[in-house]
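Workshop exercise sheet. Pairs work together: one partner reads the sequence aloud, the other fills in the structure field after running the prediction. Swap roles for the next sheet.
Pair: D.N. / O.F.
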Amino acid sequence: MSVSRSRDELSVTCPARLVPGGIASEVGWTCLRVVGPLDFSEIGILASLAAPLAANGVGIFVVSTFDTDYLLVKSAALETAIATLVDAGHSVVNYAPAERLSIDG
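Structure field:
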């Protein structure tokens, strides 16, 4: 779960089952967690994930924390995303619960 607030909006990223009725939301995403913690001196990690996905037409929504990054991809594009990341040299492994996967580059 992530809560982000800007001057213009409040965004909550959470499991679809937790979204109250009547709230604008978009469902159908799967979360991929980058294995961390990541040091702030490591440059280009997110770019090494986002660039091949973008080149293959896979859109992402990114949530970053102090320790790591989370890439959310549309569930319908999950298999394409995994194949793309593996082809780019990343390891993608199962992570519990089932709707989350880990990426180790």
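Discussion prompt: The longest strand covers residues 29-34. What would you look at next?
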